[in-house]
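When time allows, look over one protein, given below as sequence and tokens. The question is which stretches look regular and which look disordered:
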Amino acid sequence: MFKTLFLKHMRERGEAPTEMSRFLDILKQLVRTPSVVGTEHSFFLFLKRELEEIGIQTTLYEGVLVAEGKNPDSGMISAHIDRHGLICTGPNEFQYAAFTAQNRGDLTGDSVSEKTYQDIKERFINQRVQAYDPWSGAYLGLGEINHAYFCERRGNVVFNVQGLEHLYAGTPVAFMDTLRYQDGYLSAQLDNVLSAAMILFLYEKGYQGRAFFTAEEEAGKSWRFLLEWFRGRDIGTDELLVLDTSPYPDRKTADAQHIVLRNRDANATFTSPLRHKITDICDAFSISYGYKDHFIEALNEERIAQDLFPYSLGSTEMGRLVNASEGNIQGTTFQLPTTGYHTTRETVSMAAVIDAIKILETLYIEEDRET
């Protein structure tokens, strides 16, 4: 039924369905493979196998899987591969993995994404979850969340889960998920398997550059692993492209653009030729784009006028890298606008996905062929 609806919609749009059907096959497989923040090893191994099967060299370091084609200097793309989930922290006790005490160092509580998180915790009630071994990915049991509450003393959301009473502390618990398609929109826990699937698809299409798949972005740590890789080789760049999803409060504001860019975040200003290359491609193909920092600034003007506390511009992997490297590592973000952020119902327009892939192919595959 999923593929039937998708193919019908693509034909109605006049799009060639075959290639995007392959992309959806990749995305469906990744969505069903757990990768809770802090316990991503088994997902890394899955990606490693998929990449090596198509002839891409991979190297796994602490917190980052590096993929390299035949011309690694022709592109530099990054995407985090961790997703939100739970961690067993004691007998029949489960906490939100990204916000366990040891992971709160970079979280200030005033970003749009964190406030969104506070608003949506009730959506996890009746959510089915699966426990898995953090190293092998082996299935360890199925349960269901029947209650969630914010514990002020621990500064975290605590969950009651039926069916996983046998687990030991440290066991990751992922949200059970499947990819859904309806009326031109994809839904699942897309952050950030959507970006990982786009990179895999790009390699299948002929991309020969370099890609980084990072861990623990949802805990504010992924940039450290990436910075370590750059420093270990004493190299820099001004063309790192960081892929991700970007939350919007409703479909109207999300659909106002297909691609989300940034001039800056709370950590740094982005100065990269990539941004202008992307906007030139968008203009050439009549693809709509917007700037997330402009959106937040406009939102804050309204909030300040109402005597409300303004939102932070947010902390991105790119901004943290620019700041920590003192500008030696520069680039830009490339995000897809979604609603239902940090849930298994995060939703993106299929048209936005198609446009994003078109931009990446133009930027990295067609340019590579020309050179």
Q: What stands out?
A: The CA atoms of residues 248 and 359 lie 22 Å apart. DSSP finds eleven helices and 17 strands in the chain. The radius of gyration is 20 Å.
